[in-house]
Each structure stands twice: as structure tokens, then as C-alpha cells.
Amino acid sequence: MERQRQRYGYKVYASERDSKLLEVEFFLNYIAVASRKVDEEHCVIRLILSALATPEEISNLTKRDLRSGKFYSVRLFSGGKSRISPIDEKTFRLLKEISENLSSRDSVFRYSKEEIDEMVRRNSPPSVEYDAEKLRSDAARIISDNMFFEEHDPQEFQRLQDLSKGKDLKKMYLLFEDSNPLYSGAWDVDDDLMLAEFLRSYQFFIGYSEKELEEIADKIGEPVERLKRVLEEF
Asked: Are 117 and 132 in contact (CB under 8 A)?
């Protein structure tokens, strides 16, 4: 019989899921959490995770490319082509805050590919080096895998990535809502349970002693007292 448990806010099939994917999932969670200390860096990384945005698409983003309605989306430009991608609510609101004093045609970010790569590297887990492309690729891998376990067709994910004409946008949003942990808040640590999951995974994949808890708190921008309380409660 299939053994099932809850992890990061969605189902994990412990008898079948590749353990390597759990490690990759934690690495992405780590990068999302560690980047929170600087809003612009955090927003850039969330755009990669939420919309699978490339450095060129991020650099070309303007305030008028942000769209809201029944759900949140963003128009992305690269190589003379455009596509529309859904994004999660928290990333959208952070983008609105950052671009608040910009004109509609101003670039939200003024980073080169090299600067974005360095940004991702700076927030990578110890002894693991990510750049923007690896972060994007692994995010796509996790989303595609979660679609399989939510009984979606993984091949449909590849088809839906080509959104140059905006078709199937609503369907892609619903798929991402089910399958992208950023949309559910599972890769945030605002909730105590999610912070506890993050710390347990940190212990499993990286390891830390009680003395190092203060260093982890500093890395993720949280009071060490909260980390200690959460570990005791959960």
C-alpha cells in the first residue's frame, strides 16, 4: 500500500519519491529563505522560482508588466519575444513595493546576468553552488515532479512553459498553485510549522549543532529565540 506523508505543505510519497529530489527541494527552500534579508535579492530569486524567469527576463521587467485580476501574472521579455507567466501573490506584492516609485516604463531591476548569478550563489547552501540557470532548472524539476504526484501530466508542464501568446495561462496558474511550493507558502518561514520543517531539513541535509543555531538565525534573518521556541514546540 502506498505510504504517504505531509511535507512542505503538499504530498510526498515516501515509498516512491527520489530522495535526491528532497535534497534539491531543500536547497531551493534554503535559497528562498536566506535571500529574505535584502528585498530586491529576495524578489529576484522569487521571480526565478515563481515564474521560472531568466536573468534577461528579470532585467527587462518593467512596472507595467505586472498584472493582477483573478490571479497574478507578469509579462516577461527575452530575445525579442514575450511570454506571460503566473506568479504567486507574495512575489507580486513584493514587486509592487519595489517598483512603487518607478514610472511604468522604468526597469524594476538593473542587474546583469553576472550580478544575478552572484546573487544566487551568495544565498546558496554551504558547499553547494547555484547560479540563476541551475536555480531555474531545479525549480522546473521540482514543479514537474510535483505535477506527477498530483496526477497531472508532466509533459503538459513542458508544453505550458511556452506562453508567448498567453494561452493556457489560467491552467498554468492552477497547476503552479498545486505544484509550486512557493505558491502555498511552503518555502517561506513566516509560519512556525514551515520554519520547523525547514530546520529539520537543514539538520538532515547540512547538519548543525546547538551552538550553530545562532549562525543559522542570522543567515535567515530570524531571532534565535524564535528558532529555539519552534524546535521545542514542533
From this structure: yes
Closest CA to 95 of 139, 140, 58, 143: 58
The amino acid sitting at 233 is: E
Rounded to two decimals, what is the model's pTM? Answer: 0.86
Domain span including residue 77? 10-184
Sequence-ordered list of residues with C-beta below 8 angstroms from that of 8, at least 6 positions apart, any chain: 25, 29, 181, 186, 187, 194, 197
- Same domain for 26 and 112, yes or no, is yes
β-strand partners of 81: 78
Looking up residue 21, the CATH number of its domain turns out to be 1.10.443
Cα four-point dihedral sign 48, 51, 54, 59? negative
**26 in the same domain as 100:** yes
Q: Is the pLDDT of residue 228 over 60?
A: yes
Runs of H (alpha helix) within the chain: 19-34, 39-51, 55-59, 89-98, 113-122, 132-149, 154-160, 169-179, 181-184, 192-205, 213-220, 224-233
Mean pLDDT of the region 181-192: 95
135 and 221 in one domain?
A: no
Q: How many domains does the chain have?
A: 2
Q: Output 34 or 165, whichever has higher pLDDT.
A: 34
